[in-house]
Structures are given as C-alpha cells and as structure tokens.
Amino acid sequence: MTYAKKRPAAPARPAPRLAHCGADALAALSDPTRRAVFEKLRHGPQPVSALARGMPVSRPAVSQHLKILKDAHLVSEQRDGTRRLYRIEASGLEALRRWFDMFWDDALARFAAHAEAPPKREKAVAMKGKDRG
Amino acid sequence: MTYAKKRPAAPARPAPRLAHCGADALAALSDPTRRAVFEKLRHGPQPVSALARGMPVSRPAVSQHLKILKDAHLVSEQRDGTRRLYRIEASGLEALRRWFDMFWDDALARFAAHAEAPPKREKAVAMKGKDRG
DNA sequence: TCTTTGCGTAAGTCATAACTTACCAATACG
DNA sequence: CGTATTGGTAAGTTATGACTTACGCAAAGA
User: Fold this and answer.
1) What is the pLDDT, as a whole number, of residue B123?
2) Spacing of A10 CA from C21 C1' in Å
3) Is the pLDDT of residue B8 over 70?
4) Closest residue of A to B82, CA-based?
5) Across the interface, do B60 and A116 touch by the CB < 8 Å criterion?
6) What DSSP line would sit under chain A, residue for residue?
7) Which residues of chain A have pLDDT under 70?
8) What is the nearest CA distance from B6 to chain A, expressed in angstroms?
9) Domains assigned to chain B
C-alpha cells in the first residue's frame, strides 16, 4: 500500500526510494485476480467478456484490472468493432525481467564467491527504547 | 487484496485459481518499502536495525516486512548474538523466475509465430445488462 | 546481576485496493 | 433508425495492509 495523503498517526511518508523499473509491473501482478486474467491471456488475445467469463468477479472488475495491467505495460489493447482485444505485451515483462535479473545475478555471484563478509558489529549510539532513527 | 471473510456487497470469493509458484514472492515484492529493504540486502547480510536505518519507517515496520519476505522465501535469517542477520535467499527468486519465464517464453514464441489467431466472434447468449455470468 | 542492545509481537489507526451496481457511449445489426 | 452487444467509468462499500506506539524477551557486557 502506498501512502500519499496526510495521516495523523504516521507523520509523513516521503516515497521510499525505489528502482523505477518493473515496479508497476510487480504491483500489477501482485493481485491474484490480475494474475488470473494475465494467465488467461497466455492462450492468445481475448476480449474483456471472454476474460471475465468463469471468473469469480464481475466484468467491470476485470475491466478495472485490465486498466492497471495496461498502465504497467503488461497488456495492450486493440479495438475490434465493439470489442477490445487484449493481449500480453512484452515490454512490461521485459522491464520486470531487467529489475529481477539484477538480484538474480547478484545472488549467483554472491553464492559463487561464498564470502559473505558479515558486517562488523559497531557500537550503537545509545537510543533508549527509541524505535526511530 | 485478497478477500476471505464474508462481505455483504460481494457474495463470495472462492480464491481465484492461480499458479502457486512465485505468487507469494510477487505479493511480497509489490510493496515499495519491502523492495527498498530487499535492495538494501544486495550489499550483503544485514541486521534489522541496519536495514531500518535511513528508512522512512520505524524498525518494527521493517521487522514486519522482513517476516513477509521470509515467508516468501526471499530472505533468510541467521541469529548472531542479539542480532539477526538477514540475507537474500535464492529459492524465492528462483520460484519467481520460473513463474515468470513461463510468460516470457510464451511471449517470444507467440511473437515468433506471428500468428495470433484472434478468437472468432460468437453469438452471445442474450444477457440484457447482466454483468455477471 | 543489572543494564543495554536488538528485535519480535500485540493492539490500534487509517488510507486504500478490490470489489459491487448503475449508467453511458460506441459499434453492429435488423 | 431502433435495439442489442461490448466495455469503460462513476459512486459507494468494506476488508485489509502498512503503519504506529508499547511491551517483552534473549543475549552481551559492565
């Protein structure tokens, strides 16, 4: 969940720095229903009602999910009469993969090196019960 | 968001079928703060307070995020005195990659084949204004 | 042993994501 | 032109996730 407006109990939230890569795609695919829709598209381009058919949610819900997937460049839309064919778009997957490979390579390298160099224990500067920096 | 308990406005929600692969990992990485923590771990194993340092959220918040990452097998924990060293765990990444490569391969194959075979238009069985199947 | 450091967990708050139904626009079709 | 199909969008509801503070326990260190 991303906080934006003011919230009394939590002073602020200056948008934690994050790699602006496959972030949107990750968020988009974090929802089970959205994943289900996305997986349905593996069988080829489909109109909204076909995607909604058999799903436990309403057609408008699927529409809303498709919008999110589209914004994340995970699907693209092609108008065909009154229908709109949705299909999986490579670019979103690609962005995701780039972000992801970063860690993958790292993990492998680190595993290969086998030297983890656990951080030195350093004297903490007296914070009695304080949970905040 | 995953619905579980009853909700008057929405009859039921029988858990949309989904490939039980990197699902947890995707959900875990969908949060910006969690990604930030995860990215910090690229520099090597770190104790909780080191991870929390400089973050816009409290230390307990980071602890909670680490629990989620751990449940998704994205990080592992090693006790060291009063500290607990967290490090990136390959297995979660691997699961994620498997799920992900499924689509990736598909997308490439489909792109290569170039034949999309858009679904035939079929007479819908008269549903006046109904949004549900 | 008494204190400090390190960290997990409980309880409570609040914004919001994921739904719902209703409505509207656009295209196809008779 | 009237009607049905298709699908996007608005408005409203609710469960939940991301926080907070407070507390408690375990290991070090004096």
Assistant:
1) 52
2) 35
3) no
4) A121
5) no
6) ----S-BTTB---------SSSHHHHHHHTSHHHHHHHHHGGG--EEHHHHHTT-SS-HHHHHHHHHHHHHTTSEEEEEETTEEEEEE-HHHHHHHHHHHHHHHHHHHHHHHH----PPPP------SS----
7) 1-21, 107-108, 110-130, 132-133
8) 14
9) 23-111 (1.10.10.10)
